[in-house]
Amino acid sequence: MSDKGPLNFTEYFIETALDQVKYFSSLLAPQKLRERIEVYFEMRARGVLTDSRGELLSPLKPETKGIYNQLLYSGPKTRAEIMEFLNVSERTLRTIISQMEDAGLVKAPAKQPVTLALSPSSIELLFPHLW
User: Fold this and answer.
1) Is 2 inside a domain boundary?
2) Which of 14, 23, 108, 124 is 20 to 30 A off residue 63, Cα-Cα?
3) Structural contact between residues 30 and 42, judged by C-beta atoms closer than 8 angstroms
4) What's the mean pLDDT in 46-61?
5) Which residues constitute the domain of residue 87?
């Protein structure tokens, strides 16, 4: 056997992988994600965003954007970490997290870290080219 076969396969594999990375990067447009997050949470805070059926989505507290960004860029957080980040009481945090859970933006099982989720309404605005 020669080295030509494995070399050709390696080149093909790398070219295909690079092509897929470029394709998905163009769909996700990560360099503009922060802007889309700003727009999404501003519209939700004002109560002017609709779902795919045209129904108004319930307004979200302004603090939800900070939590969402923290979870997106830093990973799961405990409630204590989020409380410290926002500098709010436990009761206020419960209200905010509950609101985000209802909106499908986080998963917050009892006594476990809060994790990011993507609701159908958020995907439509945050990742519009996936539709």
Assistant:
1) no
2) 124
3) no
4) 91
5) 30-130
Q: What is the average per-residue pLDDT within 88-104?
A: 95
Please count the structural domains in the chain.
Answer: 1
Per residue, what are the HEC states of the chain? CCCHHHHHHHHHHHHHHHHHHHHHHHHHCHHHHHHHHHHHHHHHHHCCCECCCCCECCCCCCHHHHHHHHHHHHCCECHHHHHHHHCCCHHHHHHHHHHHHHCCCEECCCCCCEEECCCHHHHHHHCHHHC
pTM (2 decimals)? 0.77
Q: How far is residue 10's CA from residue 73's CA, in Å, rounded to a whole number?
A: 33
Residue 126 near residue 26, CB atoms below 8 Å: no
16 in a structural domain: no
State the amino acid at position 15 in one-letter form: E
CA dist 27 and 37 (Å) reads: 16
